[in-house]
Amino acid sequence: MGRTGMWMLVLLTLALSKASQGQLVLYDNFNSKHIDPSKWVGAATSLSSDANRREVAVQLVGEKNRQLLIAENIYSANTGNTGSAGDGFGLAFASPEKVTALSFTLAVNKDAISGCAANPIGWAGAGFFGRYFNPTGDGPIGDIAASVSIGRLSTDSLGSLTVNAAIVRCNDNTPSCDDQSTLSSQILGYLQLGGNNTYSVTWDRTNHQFIFQMNNGSQVSLAYAVSDAYQPGFPDKSFWVSGNVPHCSAKPRPSASVEALFDDVYVNR
């Protein structure tokens, strides 16, 4: 290929890239001094009980290229060896009903979760959760949500994270969708702590599906077979960290500690 042909190829590649980027516009890069109250509100904070939470943080960090830090430490009850308790904490879009497509970057810098011999399984991680519609319009029960979660089980190798995309149904009327069932899910990939990655979620209502992507990997389409005729009862879309810690009578009591950095949030026009 000659020099002219090479430049034409470069220009075509740039044009295609700009066309793709043009589908989304920058919503927040968190470079302000404070979290913008016109763009963000506090997210629903509990998956079962705030009593497990000890330390939390939602703040902007860094000097020039600032990022949104969300972190929490939670601890298990130590009165028995059955069940578990979970807590989530985060920041939500102020006008979630307008967001049908978004992308964001996320680095999970800390993800520590423990269990005990009698009750070993716990989970901790971070990600995005958004309610998009309700099949019946009878309130928040039945809201359909899409999520991207990056985390690990207490039995996984230290530092090893799984990225999972899912469509879920909210089975209760809590803002945090405590009781939910999975309609469809797929693993997008595996990561190590600390890496900064880009994720996108697009509601393709015309084709009754959600489209997920991690970095420049293949797009993953998850379809749903329920009506999308009505707005969700709780129109929440939020970034979060969460831990679900198993109850254990043994000491030290199990705990979860998660720290995540979010940045460069883009949304549909």
Quaternary organisation: single chain
CATH topology: Jelly Rolls
User: Can you count the helices?
Assistant: 1
Return the average pLDDT rounded to an integer.
87
H/E series: HEEEEEEEEEEEEEEE
Layout of helices and strands:
Layout: H1 3-21, E1 24-28, E2 40-42, E3 53-61, E4 67-75, E5 84-93, E6 101-113, E7 123-133, E8 144-153, E9 160-170, E10 180-192, E11 196-204, E12 209-214, E13 220-223, E14 237-246, E15 255-268
Antiparallel strand pairs: 1-15, 2-5, 3-4, 4-15, 5-14, 6-11, 6-15, 7-8, 7-14, 8-9, 9-10, 11-12, 12-13
Question: Would you give an account of this structure?
Answer:
This protein has 269 residues and is mainly beta. The protein has one domain: Jelly Rolls, CATH 2.60.120. 7% of the residues lie in helices and 51% in strands. The protein has one helix at 3-21; strands at residues 24-28, 40-42, 53-61, 67-75, 84-93, 101-113, 123-133, 144-153, 160-170, 180-192, 196-204, 209-214, 220-223, 237-246, 255-268. The strands form two sheets. Strands 1, 3, 4, 6, 11, 12, 13 and 15 form an eight-stranded antiparallel beta sheet that branches. A seven-stranded antiparallel beta sheet has the order 2-5-14-7-8-9-10, with no helix packed on it. It is globular and about 50 Å long. Residues 1-22 have low confidence and may be disordered.
Q: What characteristics describe this protein?
A:
1 helix; mainly beta; disordered N terminus; 51% strand; Jelly Rolls; 269 residues; globular; seven-stranded antiparallel β-sheet
